[in-house]
Amino acid sequence: MERRTIGAGALAVGAVGLGCMPMTWAYSGSRQRGDESVRAVHRALDLGSTLLDTADMYGPFTNELLIGRVLKERRTEAFVSTKVGLLVGEQHIVANGRPGYVRRACDASLRRLQTDVIDLYQLHRADPEVPVEETWGAMAELVRAGKVRALGLCAVGARGGRRSGAGLHDATLRQLRRVQQVFPVSAVQAELSVWSPDALEALLPWCAAHGVGFLAAMPLGNGFLTGTLTPGEGFEPDDVRARHPRFTAEMMAANQPIVAGLRRVARRHGEHVTPAQVALAWTLAQGRHVIAVPGAKRERWVTENAKAPSLALTSQDLTDLAQLPAAVGSWD
Fold first, then answer.
1. Of 91, 112, 115, 102, which is closest to residue 24 (Cα–Cα)?
2. Whole-angstrom Cα distance, residue 169 to residue 151?
3. For this structure, is 58 an active site residue?
4. Which of 153, 178, 294, 307 is the most exposed place for a label (fewest CB within 10 A)?
């Protein structure tokens, strides 16, 4: 697989990584099977999808434990990215950016992942009660201690830190400017896909200008851009899409022209090319500093996703995709 670099440290990873969250959290619980997911991780490494993206809050904790089963055997082949800063309660999620907590959380993640070092340690969300510089300083200490190789920042959510009239990523850009004064940012993770292109406006250019890698989260639109979801089919209660405004039956039907556009482009490249591969290729075409991180929990989808970097979209393909209608139904 094509290799791309993250940050000034030139950390090399496959252009398409593996988002591990669906394996144990946030998506249909009845379809989560540990052994099947472990096979999917092994398949990803076999195909060059070396970036494994997880977080301590996924599960919580079970996602890192699952990835640790693979890392115990194949640590040298993987680029491990995990996150800190969010605690999961019974019915809520809260941020914790206190330095002492960050240090303890890192040690716990290392144990669960069965590794001596985390390649990329990301701040999941800044704690509103703690200056972000203090949290980032604690994370920088982990780099100096040899427990972490590089630091990353996850973008503030669409509903968090949004000022009236402000751009979607203004709050994230403010955080980036602050933490860059403490320790270099190697990567930023934010949603980027054909139906959520907001990062193209300011966040992606900022990363390119500062030599920062961009981890494109949800490049398949939570599965919608694969074309495998049926409007009105419904989701299990524990599935995040059951509460997402874009996944009501009405909105899924309204957004079908986006999937249809992906299918048209896919057909130009052969009968075996899928809408998902076109969506991933579009994401990768947005910059050499972009790494796509689609979530998957089955070998089949991992294998399909890994073929996307070899799909060369033409200028006409990109023009047609740019002219697709904007998605309707969003967190805003």
1. 112
2. 19
3. yes
4. 178
